[in-house]
Write a structure and sequence with these properties.
It is found in: Cell membrane; Cell projection; Cytoplasm; Nucleus. It is a peripheral membrane protein. GO terms for molecular function: actin binding. By secondary structure, the protein is of the alpha+beta class. The protein has four domains: 78 residues, Roll (Ubiquitin-like (UB roll)), CATH 3.10.20.90; 101 residues, Up-down Bundle (Acyl-CoA Binding Protein), CATH 1.20.80.10; 94 residues, Pleckstrin-homology domain (PH domain)/Phosphotyrosine-binding domain (PTB) (PH-domain like); 116 residues. The chain contains eleven helices and twelve strands. Strands 2-1-5-3-4 form a five-stranded mixed beta sheet, sandwiched between helices. The chain has a four-stranded antiparallel beta sheet with strand order 6-7-8-9. It has a three-stranded antiparallel beta sheet with strand order 10-11-12, with helices on one face. α5 runs antiparallel to α8 and α10 runs antiparallel to α11. The two termini are 136 Å apart.
């Protein structure tokens, strides 16, 4: 067969891009394929067996639509693009995730989708619950918390909380991370699939979980209500309240759902109950609502029937897989514990080794320091020995100098004793001279007084003699002749001689006193000169004695 023949037999295909929550895939789809063919191809590529929860969604003219399984792909109103993009998403939600989600891949896809809906605020969640959910998401992504590995700031690039919560509380990123980490640290030992399941178990209790909302009106002119379809039934909400429905229709209480163009009718199972009619904006919306109602109703009825062989096999495999994973997790936990213990022992040994190395290094350093100290001490001993020799030499010289100074001191002491003796003698002489001077001064004073009294008496006697002479011998004044016969004249002559003699004695006495005074002054001057010489010698001896003391 030729290559041209092979090319002719190859079917025509077109490219399709499948976008999951966390990945993108491209496939070649045959022109004749139906929606189920493409859907089965994607499920086989993902390894997904619980296919009834999922569907392929695309957007056309601003409206999200699900690809129909029983019609050809190209016969449906899909976007005209190359490749054609479809989103692989959960179309229907389980009532109880822990019982219905059997495969790990199914659980993981639901976890990613619900997490995205919470972060995009399509599902309302309280701030406290968002922090707890974020901690389980972190546990699923990073595993057990390790403070040595998960340092502050390790969640900086992860989107874990809705922007509404971040705006509601004025907390920093570090504060939010601290709150999430506090919960995250308590999830130690939980595997990834368990953390994701715990996340979904909390999320399934939220009011907006698994609900598809559509705007409706009770008449043709006003859109003032919301219709919600979920796994439990159909609910009617007010336009401003998506949490608490005004009216609910459980699947078990609905007999029939039908639509006619924009009008959709819900007939309860109780024929006496009122039929509920409402209007939508487009016919496509009614078709989509009916499609979701049929799929949710089918799953609702399936849950309440005996499981098929396929479901029983899947549940058995899921139980076995869980048991195997549990044992594997226990084994891994044990191995991890042993590894941690081994690492701790290794760290302890390394620490001990480092400590021993440090002690050895310190011992070597101490030995080097000891050797250096020994060398230094040897040098110091040599220097000390030299200094000792020098000191001994200096001591000998000092001893000689001391002996010389002792001899000098003895001489100095003898000289000092002699000088002190001379000083004492000089002081005694000075005292005697002072006493003699005082005595002579007193005698001179008495002599002067006696001389003065003698002269005064002489003067008075001369005056009295003259007075007597004038009275008795008036002519003797003119004629000074002596008469031998007059005894008074003889007495007068004798008195004059006596006066003259007395005057001569006084003059001689005065002369002697003056001469003795001059001699005394001369001796005093010589004594003062000698005293000054003695003081000078004593001062010089004292200086020599001080210098001798300094030398010693």
């Amino acid at each position: 067969m030729s290559i041209r023949g092979l090319k002719k037999k190859q079917p025509k295909t077109f490219k399709v891009k499948i976008i999951t929550v966390d990945a993108e895939m491209e496939f070649s789809c045959e022109m004749k394929w139906k929606g189920k063919d493409l859907f089965d191809l994607v499920c086989r590529a993902l390894g997904l067996r619980e296919t009834w929860f999922f569907g392929l969604q695309y957007t056309i003219k601003g409206m999200c639509t699900w690809l129909k399984m029983d019609k050809k792909v190209l016969d449906q109103e899909i976007p005209k693009e190359d490749p054609v993009s479809f989103h692989f998403l959960a179309k229907f939600y389980p009532e109880k995730v822990e019982e219905e989600l059997l495969q790990e891949i199914t659980q993981h896809l639901f976890f990613l989708q619900v997490k995205k809906q919470i972060l995009d605020e399509e599902i309302y969640c309280s701030p406290e619950a968002t922090v707890l959910l974020a901690s389980y998401a972190v546990q699923a992504k990073y595993g057990d918390y390790d403070p040595n590995f998960h340092e502050p700031g390790f969640l900086a690039h992860d989107e874990l909380l809705p922007k509404r919560v971040l705006r509601q509380y004025q907390l920093t990123a570090e504060m939010w991370e601290e709150k999430i980490t506090a919960w995250y640290a308590e999830h130690r030992g939980i595997a990834r699939d368990e953390a994701e399941m715990n996340y979904l178990k909390i999320a399934q209790d939220l009011e907006m979980y698994g609900v598809n909302y559509f705007p409706i009106a009770q008449n043709k002119n006003h859109t003032d209500l919301l219709l919600g379809v979920d796994a439990k039934g159909i609910h009617i909400y007010s336009i401003n309240n998506r949490f608490s429905p005004n009216k609910s229709f459980e699947w078990s209480a609905i007999r029939n759902i039908s639509y006619s163009e924009k009008e959709l009718t819900i007939k309860p199972l109780d024929k006496k109950a009122e039929v509920f009619k409402f209007f939508s904006s487009q016919l496509k919306v009614n078709k989509l609502i009916l499609q979701l109602c049929i799929g949710n109703h089918d799953l609702f009825m399936r849950r309440r029937k005996v499981d098929s062989i396929e479901i029983q096999q899947m549940k058995a495999q899921a139980r076995e897989e869980k048991a195997r994973k549990k044992m594997e997790n226990q084994r891994l936990a044990r191995e991890k514990q042993l590894r941690e213990e081994a690492e701790r022992a290794k760290e302890e040994l390394e620490r001990r080794l480092f400590q021993l190395e440090d002690e050895a290094r310190q011992a070597n350093e101490a030995l080097l320091r000891s050797q250096e100290a020994a060398e230094l001490l040897a040098e110091k001993a040599q220097i000390a020995e030299e200094e000792a020799k020098l000191l001994a030499q200096n001591a000998a010289e000092a001893e000689q100098e001391r002996q010389r100074l002792e001899i000098t001191a003895l001489k100095t002491k003898e000289e000092k004793r002699l000088m002190e003796q001379k000083m004492r003698e000089a002081e005694l002489i000075a005292v005697k001279l002072v006493k003699e001077s005082d005595r002579r001064a007193k005698e001179a004073e008495h002599l002067k007084q006696d001389l003065h009294e003698a002269r005064e008496a002489e003067r008075k006697a001369k005056q009295k003699l003259l007075d007597i002479t004038r009275l008795n011998y008036p002519h003797m004044v003119k004629y000074p002749q002596y008469s031998p016969t007059d005894t008074r004249d003889a007495n007068f002559d004798k008195g004059s001689i006596k006066l003259d003699l007395k005057d001569i004695d006084l003059k001689r006495l005065s002369f002697e006193i003056e001469r003795e005074r001059l001699d005394y002054l001369e001796k005093s001057r010589k004594f003062e000169d000698r005293l000054k010489e003695l003081k000078s010698e004593i001062h010089a001896l004292k200086l020599e004695e001080k210098q001798s003391g300094l030398y010693s």
